[in-house]
Every structure is written in C-alpha cells, then in structure tokens.
Amino acid sequence: MITLYSFPASRSLRVAWALEELGLEYECRHVDLGGGEGQTEAFLARHPDGKVPVLVDGELTLFESAAICRYLAERYGEPGGLLPASVEDRARVDQWLFFIIGELEQALWTQAKHKFVLPGEQRVPAVLPTAAWEFQRAVRALERRFDGEGWLVGDHFTLADLLLAHTLSWAVQFKMRLPAALEAYRQRASARPALAPAVGRERTAAESA
Question: What are the GST N-terminal domain coordinates in residue numbering (predicted)?
C-alpha cells in the first residue's frame, strides 16, 4: 500500500492529485504540523526537515513533491500519460518542473514564510513587495513560452501542468494577480476530475486524525 503523509493546502496536494490521476490506491495520513508532529523523531526519519509531503511505497521513502510525482508517473503511469513517451518531451516536462519550483513557487513561498510560516521574530515584512515583484517577473517569463492555450508539453495534460496549476492556485490564494489567459488555464486544469477527490482525501485524513 502506498502511504502519503500530508497536510491540507500544502504541497502534498500535488502528490494526492497525481495519485488520483494515476488511479492508484493509497492511504492518506495527516501530519499535525501545527502540533509539532513533523519534528518528532519518527517523522524526521522520513523527512529531514519535518515537512510534507512524504511518500512511502514499500521499501522506498521519498520527500519533495516534484520528485514524488515524477516517481509515481514513471513507475505507475502509462507511456504518454503524465509523462510523455519521448525522451525529449520528458526533458521538457522536467524543464518546466524546475522552472515552476525554482522561479514561480519560490516567490510565493517567500511571501508565505514571512507572513505566517516563520516564527514571528524571523519574519521580515519588508521583503514582501520584492517577493511579489519576483513572482510577477516569473509570470512574465512563463508567458513568453506559454500563452495559456493547450498544455505545457505536447497536446495533453502532464505533470508539468499539474504542478503549474497547483502553484497558480497558491498565487490566487495569496491574492496575486494572474493574466486572464493563465487564470483560464488554471481553472481548466483544476476542473480535472482527479483534483476534487485528492482535496477530499486530505481533508478527511485531517478531520479524522
């Protein structure tokens, strides 16, 4: 049985979404990050920084959302599904994964850390306008290569779209402005049938913990 250690509205939703897209059976276990569960010895053995997501699949334990999604798609996905069939297009998916994590997400995460994640004495409100500027700069870079029509790689939804749609949804939650075409793309990707059950599984796990 695959086990996903999760927390609602975090990066673990990407993994739950990928699991649902792949039609895999899995157990969703809530990690009470606010209550300190992430910093227990048992959980630090799974993730060295006490964060989510963590995936356990048999003898394999993985952390980092993009790496987990990539593993699931490669191990369990059909050729040409969440990962394209050709080496070249798989490289293009990886290119976008690195861009999304390194450029788009990092600016949003900086804002989150300095608004509510870090201890109060470590927050620097003065950095927030710079982080917002960085995000908009990354959005403009994205627009130079992707106009919001179709999908990022090839003619169907891939892992690159899953991570981009999730990251853009974070941006909306943080009240960041998105170009109309990218907002329409986000809504189209988020309407996929696999996302709602993924959200539900995380919420149910949290409520029953």
Answer: 1-80
